[in-house]
């Protein structure tokens, strides 16, 4: 009897249907994969950037990967709050990410261009989930997505201006 009671009390009843929770969590899993891929790319570039802009890019990349690292937990915890297991392996992220792997050893400005593309890809992933979260009346996910969009679009802009002549 106690086991049945515990199972019944663990049912999720937050005002979002199971179908919508699973679909939103799937979208957030893609965002988590893009975010982790972006984090790893940015940290790699922080370690390996060279050239005349070394100091400014090294510092900028550190600020970006630190912010990205902190976002991973927020995204994963939202997935868990929706009752779904958050992906957490390279293999899962590789399947879910929209960001292509970096090939070779890019030069500093190539790194910047790759980061612009990765920031924009992550923004597109977040934006693609807005309609579903809105239809499901999922304000916490909407808030998370809006914050991520603002950050990725602003970061892409700040990187993009470095590529201008």
UniProtKB/TrEMBL annotation:
Residues 27-164 form the Ferritin/DPS domain. Signal peptide: none annotated. It comes from the Bacteria. Pfam families: Ferritin. InterPro entries: DPS_DNA-bd, DPS_DNA-bd_CS, Ferritin-like, Ferritin-like_SF, Ferritin_DPS_dom. Keywords: Membrane, Transmembrane, Transmembrane helix. The chain crosses the membrane at residues 21-41. Belongs to the Dps family. This is Dps family protein. It comes from Uliginosibacterium paludis.
